Amino acid sequence: MNSPLRLDAYRIDRLLLEANQEFDGRDEFTGTIDVDPEHLRHTEQEDAHQLTLTVSFGPVDDDPTGAPYTGEIVGRAFFHLGSEDLEQAEKTRLVIVNGGAILYGLLRAQIAQVTALSHFGTFLLPPVNLVEAFRAKWEAAQPPHQDPE
After folding, report:
1. Which domain holds residue 118?
2. How many structural domains is the chain composed of?
3. Is residue 146 part of a domain?
């Protein structure tokens, strides 16, 4: 089944990478990864969307040897939805879920390519739960709940 979601373009806005000299060479990544997502809809073209993911990764404080690299990558993707039969909520879901997976995969490939020539070799960003990342971002943006007096 074809998706009405179309990737028009993507950009890498920032890429920072540093080899972690304390890394112990283990096979399993035990570091931390954080994803900060942002979804914007074009004000004049309602089917045009922009998705930005800021992905930060590195060792955790209590185990500085568990990640080969410390870094951050910021990617931006521009999507267009070609179906007018979908409700706005479904369009947004397609951009967030499918578009997020597309953009994260592109960022993951970029990190893999850069690290392939780096000190500890290829690093693949681990899978993340983008639905939860967007949910947390949305909940953080909501005003605090006030109890009625």
Report:
1. 5-124
2. 1
3. no
H or E element at residue 111: helix 100-115
CATH of the domain at 105: 3.10.420.10
Q: What is the pTM of this model?
A: 0.89
Q: Does residue 149 form part of some domain?
A: no
Two tokens, residue 71: 């870094």
* 70, two tokens: 């410390």
Domain assignment present for 145: no
Which has the closest alpha carbon to 115: 127, 104, 123?
Answer: 123
pLDDT tens for the 149 residues of the chain, in order: 778 899 999 999 999 999 999 999 988 899 999 999 999 988 888 889 999 999 999 999 999 999 999 999 999 999 999 877 888 888 888 999 999 999 999 999 999 999 999 999 999 999 999 999 998 988 888 777 666 66
User: Does some domain include residue 129?
Assistant: no
Distances (CA, A) of 21 to 11, 24, 30, 95, 118: 30, 8, 15, 38, 12
Tally of CB atoms within 10 A around 23: 18
